[in-house]
From TrEMBL:
It is an enzyme of class 4 (lyase). The lineage of its organism: Bacteria, Bacillati, Bacillota, Bacilli, Bacillales. SUPFAM superfamilies: ACT-like, Periplasmic binding protein-like II. Keywords: Amino-acid biosynthesis, Aromatic amino acid biosynthesis, Lyase, Phenylalanine biosynthesis. Transmembrane segments: none annotated. One of its GO terms (biological process) is L-phenylalanine biosynthetic process. It comes from Aeribacillus pallidus. The gene is pheA. This is Prephenate dehydratase. NCBIfam families: PRK11898.1. Pfam families: ACT, PDT.
Amino acid sequence: MKISYLGPKATFTHLAVSKFFENDVKLVPYRTIPHVMDAVVKQETNIAVVPLENALEGSVNLTIDYLIHENTLHIVGEIVVPIKQHLMVHPCRKDDWKKIEKVFSHSHAIAQCHKFLHEHMPDVSIEYATSTGAAAEYIHQHPEENMAVIANELAAKEYDLAIVKYNIHDYDYNHTRFVILHPDQDFQIENNHHNKVGEKTTLVVTLPTDHVGALHQVLSAFAWRKLNLSKIESRPMKTGLGDYLFIIDIESKMDDVLIPGAIQELEALGCGVKILGSFPAYKL
Ligand SMILES: O=C(O)C(=O)C[C@]1(C(=O)O)C=C[C@@H](O)C=C1
């Protein structure tokens, strides 16, 4: 089985897939989240793994938007991974890293370390990379750049960088949810040894024309069936200012009665409903 992931080597996504999947898989890195997903659609790989949400910074909007608007893949699993961000430099700058002028990383990694950067490196400029691994690889290839990178310990090893500050993320509880994507919504991930923490169903709901209490009615369809929601988030529909869709995570797997009943009720109210997936959630 071939798995596309947000690469290059030693990103957090790489850490997640290499810990989660067994040895008989081939891991194939792609540079951007859309490329990771397109690889499955083009049948270059069988499964895609991409980041969806971080506990400190919230959703990875590119993943959500691509999944909703551009893609036909389904979420077939979720992996929650602890995230530790470190500051690293090319070894030739190890002793004078305090004179660094730029910090380079993925936007989510930078956002997870805002307080640290504000307090300890207030004058540096920030540059964004497609992933933490891509930033680490760049600095390895460009020792002449007076830059530091925010990335994980594996990246420091892979790209031969020196960690000058460990654990610079602003809050201890720093976890990211990665999703496993497949074209077939009934695809089952083989998993023998990981810690399964629950089941989820993710829906995308569009409201009928804006009217008083529309969202309240949507939420009632879940509430009176005692379907617990673990997330509700609005994203622009990209059709006009004020047009939103809602991404709703239900803390149960698809059943024959309750979730289909809630969906029918929403459709009767004039809502559009798309099922992004019904899947097991694992914690590493
Ligand atoms: O850049 C990486 O290493 C990624 O895997 C991406 C990503 C993200 O998009 O949130 C994943 C986990 C961390 O939260 C920071 C960055």
